[in-house]
């Protein structure tokens, strides 16, 4: 059964302000996907659509999924604001990924910061994400490896390592090539414009 508490939590999180995320595509997405030929992409936890818009602008057909209607509406508005015929290349679907998962096989399955403060079996969701990758396609997972320097409340949180995320998916090594499984820092801006180092787990796997 769908966990309406989780949906409600995210709906309320989005309702707190007009915009939560930067609206820009995630740095790791740009870093990894800029060199890939466009195809069919599945985006898990699309939030306000910064990555969705960028992928569509690069020629990808995108199925963008989130648990929160508020997020999906903002992502659709961002797509419309970006103009052109981008909307023709994007479909939005609402799923609680712990309960239902989009159908199909994709050249790219991407999940950026698909974290949630609620209790959930994220490994199971990531296993389904891997299963949705077409032969020759890629799975890109980008997680926080540690709290941002400006975070006030979550410094005692234990973050999974990139290796733990990969182990949780229990993939057949004969079927998957590890292109990147690492912890990587980058410069980023905090909510008040402060500069700091953000540390990500970057997991890029290619299905043979
Ligand atoms: C930290 S935000 C990241 C949003 C976006 N990927 C980005 O990088 O800006 C996590 C997103 O995952 C979504 N989410 C959390 N749990 C989910 C679930 N069980 N099913 C689908 N989406 C979920 C949230 O609604 C939220 O939009």
Automatic annotation (TrEMBL):
Species, as recorded: Mycolicibacterium chitae
Enzyme class, first EC level, given as a word: transferase
Domain Methyltransferase residues, every copy: 42-137
Highest taxon in the source lineage: Bacteria
GO terms, biological process: methylation
Residue spans crossing the bilayer: none
Key word Methyltransferase present: yes
Name recorded for this polypeptide: Methylase involved in ubiquinone/menaquinone biosynthesis
Protease among keywords: no
E.C. no: 2.1.1.157
Cross-referenced Pfam families: Methyltransf_25
A GO MF label: methyltransferase activity
Assigned keywords, A-Z: Methyltransferase, Transferase, Ubiquinone
